[in-house]
Amino acid sequence: NSNSNSISDNESIGHTVSSDFEIKIDSTSSVYLNPSFSKNISKNKYKSNSRTTDANNLDLNENEIDNFNDSENNSFKNNLYYTKEFKRKGRRLSFAFDVESNSYENKLFTVNNTTFFQTGNPDEERNQYRKNKNNSNDLDFQFSYSEPILDSISLGIDLNFRHKNNNDFQE
Predict the structure, then answer these.
(1) In 3D, which of 160, 165, 13 has the Cα closest to residue 100?
(2) Residues facing 37 on adjacent strands
(3) Using CA atoms, how far apart are residues 56 and 7, in angstroms rounded to an integer?
(4) For 8, how many CA atoms within 13 A lie in the half-sphere containing its CB?
């Protein structure tokens, strides 16, 4: 026979803020900006206990588990875009800069105790802690220039640069 009980409690909170800005510098150029930030926090608790008995209703073992999991996720993004139209029809300059930064951290605590009553096996006691962290950054830069050669032909130059960085840590 086994008899067990468990209880869990989960809580999650999230916030996001974002905005859009368009700034007209003059009649031929403008800047667009789009920053955003989000934060999410999660807390989870779990407890259980169980008892196992034999056919004579004598205790065989007892197990208790206590888990706590705590995580946090943060994200920042920003897009910046600039464009300039020149007097000559078709001549245009633009650049874009995008940045994204994310961080994640998770902590897990586990306590697991098992008591053996009849087998002579040693009792088991486990206290475990695990921590995971991840940080990532992504930068993207784009440049574009267009120069008209003839009414129906133009020369375009595009440059792109991208850098990604990701760090994982576990303890």
Answers:
(1) 165
(2) 17, 76
(3) 29
(4) 7
Structure tokens at 79: 């897009």
Name, in order, each residue with C-beta under 8 angstroms of 81's C-beta and a sequence gap of 6 or more: 31, 32, 33, 94, 95, 96, 97
Q: pLDDT (tens digit, 9 = 90+) per residue, 68-101?
A: 999 999 999 999 999 999 999 889 999 999 999 9
DSSP three-state, residue 95:
strand
**What's the farthest any 2 CA atoms get from each other in the chain?**
99
94 and 83 in contact (C-beta within 8 Å)?
A: yes
Q: What is the band of 171 on the pLDDT scale with cuts at 50, 70, 90? A: confident
pLDDT, tens digit, for every residue of 14-54?
999 999 999 999 999 999 999 999 999 999 999 999 999 99
Beta bridge partners of 141: 97, 161
